[in-house]
Specification:
The chain is mainly α. Helices cover 70% and strands 0% of the residues.
Length: 354
C-alpha cells in the first residue's frame, strides 16, 4: 500500500516533468515553424476583418502554409487572437491550446491517478508536442470530446460539445451518427440548433458564397491516398509502393470497417464506449490523417487505464517524442495505433461487461 501511495505521489511530478523537458524543448526550438497552423487561422480572421474571401480556392493539396480549410464559423474563434499584437498572438493561442488540454484532462470521468497518467503520456508523446508546436486545434477537440464523455447523460451539453467540435473541424460530426444510432434525438436537436446558429452568424459576416468556397477547398484537399505526409492506411500503402488503385481500395476497405465499428459499438456496447469509438473514428475517417491527430487517442487510453488495462500506455508510447525524432517507428504506426484505440474499448467492454 505504501508503494502505491509513493507511486501516486511521484506521478504528478513525472507528468509535469514530461511537459517541461519533452514538450518544452520542442516549442523552444520551433523557430519560424511555431504556430504554423495558427498562422492560417489568424490570416483567415484578418481577411474577414478586411472584407476579403476566407478561402483560397486555388489550393490543390492539404498542408500548405497559411491555407485555411476549416468551416466558416471557426474563424470567429480565431478572430480575438488574430487581433492581438503579432508579437504575442501566437504565444497566447498556443497557451490557450495547452490550457484546453489541461481542462480536458480535468473533465475526464476517471480517477485522479489516471488523469495524471494521461498528462504524463501526453507530455511524452510526439502528437501532443507537435500539435502545440503547430498551434493546432487538437487540444481543443480533446477538451470537447472529454466534456462530451463527462456529460454523456446531459443532452444539452453533449449536443453543444458535438456541435462546437463540428464547427472547429468537420470530422466530429461523425459522433452524430452514433447519436442517431442510439436514438439520442435531443442531443441531435441541440447540436443542430447550435450548428444552425453558428452557420447563420458566419453567413451574415462572410456571405453565402463562402460556403461554396469551403466545399471547393474540401474537394481539392481531400486526397486520402496521394497527399504527402498523410498517415491514412491508403496513403501508407501508396507510400510503400502499392499502385494508387490498390491503395484506394485499402482506404475504402478501412473506411467501411470503421463505419461498421461505429454501428456495432453503438448498438452493442455501453454508451461511453460507443461515444469514444465514434470520437476516435471521426479522426480515422478523415481523408487526411496527420500524425498530431493521434493525441486524441489519449481518450480511449484513459478509458482503458480506468479499467486497469495498463498495456494501454503502449498506444501513446508507440509515438513517443524520442523514438519519433530518431526515426525508429515507421509511418504505419499511426493507422495501427488508431486501429487499436478504435477496437480495444469495445473488445474490453464485451469481455468484461459492467
Amino acid at each position: 500500500m505504501a508503494d502505491r501511495r509513493n507511486g501516486a505521489a511521484w506521478l504528478p511530478i513525472a507528468a509535469l516533468a514530461s511537459l517541461l523537458f519533452v514538450v518544452g524543448p520542442i516549442l523552444l526550438s520551433a523557430g519560424t515553424t511555431l504556430g504554423f497552423d495558427y498562422g492560417a487561422y489568424a490570416a483567415a480572421a484578418l481577411r474577414l476583418v478586411h472584407g476579403q474571401p476566407l478561402y483560397d480556392t486555388s489550393v490543390g493539396v492539404s498542408g500548405g502554409f497559411l491555407f485555411f480549410y476549416y468551416p466558416p464559423p471557426f474563424v470567429l474563434l480565431a478572430l480575438p487572437f488574430a487581433l492581438l499584437p503579432a508579437s504575442i498572438s501566437t504565444v497566447v493561442w498556443i497557451g490557450a491550446m495547452a490550457a484546453a488540454f489541461f481542462a480536458g484532462v480535468i473533465l475526464l470521468p476517471v480517477r485522479r491517478d489516471v488523469r495524471w497518467a494521461i498528462v504524463l503520456l501526453g507530455g511524452l508523446s510526439w502528437p501532443l508536442a507537435y500539435s502545440l508546436k503547430l498551434g493546432q486545434v487538437g487540444p481543443l477537440l480533446f477538451l470537447l470530446f472529454a466534456a462530451g464523455w463527462r456529460w454523456l447523460d446531459r443532452p444539452g451539453r453533449l449536443g453543444t460539445t458535438i456541435a462546437l467540435g463540428t464547427i472547429i473541424k468537420i470530422q466530429p460530426a461523425v459522433v452524430l451518427v452514433w447519436a442517431a444510432l442510439v436514438r439520442r434525438w435531443r442531443t441531435i436537436g441541440v447540436a443542430a440548433l447550435v450548428l444552425l446558429a453558428a452557420a447563420l452568424v458566419a453567413t451574415l459576416l462572410t456571405g453565402v458564397s463562402t460556403w461554396a468556397d469551403y466545399v471547393e477547398v474540401l474537394r481539392r484537399v481531400s486526397a486520402p491516398v496521394t497527399t504527402p505526409h498523410d498517415f491514412t492506411p491508403g496513403a501508407i500503402a501508396f507510400q510503400l509502393g502499392a499502385p494508387e488503385a490498390l491503395a484506394t481500395a485499402v482506404q475504402l476497405g478501412v473506411t467501411v470497417a470503421v463505419l461498421v465499428a461505429i454501428a456495432w459499438t453503438a448498438l452493442r456496447s455501453p454508451a461511453e464506449v460507443g461515444f469514444l469509438t465514434a470520437a476516435t473514428a471521426s479522426q480515422l475517417l478523415s481523408p487526411v490523417l496527420w500524425d498530431h491527430y493521434a493525441m486524441l487517442l489519449l481518450l480511449p487510453v484513459a478509458w482503458l487505464l480506468e479499467r486497469r488495462r495498463w498495456w494501454a500506455v503502449l498506444i501513446p508510447l508507440a509515438t513517443a517524442t524520442p523514438i519519433v525524432l530518431l526515426g525508429i517507428v515507421p509511418a504505419a504506426i499511426y493507422p495501427i495505433v488508431f486501429g487499436i484505440g478504435l477496437v480495444a474499448p469495445p473488445l474490453v467492454a464485451a469481455r468484461n461487461p459492467e
